């Protein structure tokens, strides 16, 4: 059994993907080719965000978004410790300070009730994450940001295609980012990402920042980066974007099957009005470590997203946090376990996953 089934996906779309790749090879436009503009239009239409800018990775997308809202040395950015390191790493990389707030115990997303007490005169932005494919509570977060004149950047690396109150992830805040890392819900065949925004001036600035801050060739307005997406990666995404809506429905079907059949574990809690893309289908149980060994022995792959919250990572030692500072994140990091999830899991595989989990829980006397 495969955790993400990327090979099944390629085999299914092979003709379309190979044709798109061939077009780029024949064009010799390996940078800024026609596929980049086409992808940006496709992404913007898909999620109804006025501007989509393709870039080199989800991490660079966050750095670009932070730069676009002027985050720099000694600024503070409020974010969650229960995420992939890239979220807070991008903040720190710019010389700014990540300020963590804990998560909700049911959705594992950013607890917005805790934001206001962390706002100081140095706070520049709020960077919430839409974890596991479920969009975080952006309406209350946007409201707080507006009250204090802060920027909001949604880290939608896991949630592109997910919906909040009927609207798509990456269209709900002034700035948003996503990742096209191969195993994300919409993945390319290497690194890739995108920044989304609502304002044309900001879109121009981001476009410039990702190409050395240039206004036009060899005339540079900002200190920028080399953070362009390759034309080849864009072409693969153009092919895959056509199938994405259908894949989301299939992922949701798999999740529903798990929801209805798993016993003795906490299954993902999706808030009313939300539709998750299930970047991960993560269950919670105090028996996490034993369960993952049990499943591995039965050739059922699992993963832990994430085993150590960011405030306890060596890289962030200098921030001075300690164990106990974010109890919900700490507890969940010890109990969370992601099960195989993709649009291509067969019925037989779903049944095996469920039998594995339920079999273990029965052996523990939990069910
Ligand atoms: C994957 C991920 C990123 C980073 O994306 P890359 O494309 O790998 O750089 C950032 N934030 C979150 C929440 C992620 O899951």
TrEMBL record:
N6-(pyridoxal phosphate)lysine PTM positions: 184
Family: Belongs to the DegT/DnrJ/EryC1 family.
Protein's UniProt name: Aminotransferase DegT
Top-rank lineage group of the source organism: Bacteria
SUPFAM superfamilies: PLP-dependent transferases (SSF53383)
Record keywords: Aminotransferase, Pyridoxal phosphate, Transferase
GO MF entries: pyridoxal phosphate binding; transaminase activity
GO biological process, one term: polysaccharide biosynthetic process
Lineage: Bacteria, Pseudomonadati, Campylobacterota, Epsilonproteobacteria, Campylobacterales
Organism: Helicobacter brantae
Active site per database record: 184
């Amino acid at each position: 059994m495969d955790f993400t089934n990327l090979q099944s996906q390629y085999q299914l779309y092979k003709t379309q993907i190979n044709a798109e790749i061939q077009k780029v090879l024949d064009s010799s436009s390996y940078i800024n080719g026609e596929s980049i503009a086409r992808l940006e239009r496709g992404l913007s239409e898909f999620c109804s965000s006025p501007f989509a800018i393709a870039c080199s990775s989800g991490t660079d997308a966050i750095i670009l978004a932070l730069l676009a809202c002027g985050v720099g040395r000694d600024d503070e950015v409020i974010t969650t410790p229960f995420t992939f390191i890239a979220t807070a790493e991008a903040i720190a990389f710019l010389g700014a300070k990540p300020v963590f707030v804990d998560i909700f115990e049911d959705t594992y997303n950013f607890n917005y009730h805790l934001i206001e007490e962390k706002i100081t005169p140095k706070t520049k932005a709020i960077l919430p994450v839409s974890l596991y494919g479920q969009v975080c509570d952006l309406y209350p977060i946007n409201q707080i940001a507006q009250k204090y004149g802060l920027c909001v950047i949604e880290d939608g690396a896991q949630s592109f295609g997910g919906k909040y109150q009927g609207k798509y992830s990456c269209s709900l805040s002034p700035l948003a980012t996503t990742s096209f890392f191969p195993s994300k819900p919409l993945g390319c065949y290497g690194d890739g990402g995108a920044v989304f925004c609502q304002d044309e001036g900001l879109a121009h600035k981001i476009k410039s920042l990702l190409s050395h801050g240039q206004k036009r060739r060899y005339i540079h307005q900002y200190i920028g980066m080399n953070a362009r997406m390759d034309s080849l990666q864009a072409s693969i995404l153009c092919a895959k974007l056509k199938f994405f809506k259908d894949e989301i429905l299939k992922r949701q079907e798999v999740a529903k099957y798990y929801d209805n059949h798993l016993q003795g574990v906490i299954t993902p809690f999706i808030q009313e009005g939300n539709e998750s893309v299930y970047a991960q289908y993560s269950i919670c149980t105090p028996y996490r470590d034993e369960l993952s060994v049990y499943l591995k022995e039965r050739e059922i792959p699992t993963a832990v997203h994430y085993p150590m919250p960011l405030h306890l990572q060596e890289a962030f030692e200098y921030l001075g946090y300690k164990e106990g500072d974010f109890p919900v994140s700490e507890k969940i990091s010890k109990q969370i376990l992601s099960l195989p999830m993709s649009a291509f899991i067969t019925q037989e595989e779903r049944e095996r996953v469920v039998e594995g989990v339920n079999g273990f829980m029965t052996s523990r006397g939990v069910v």
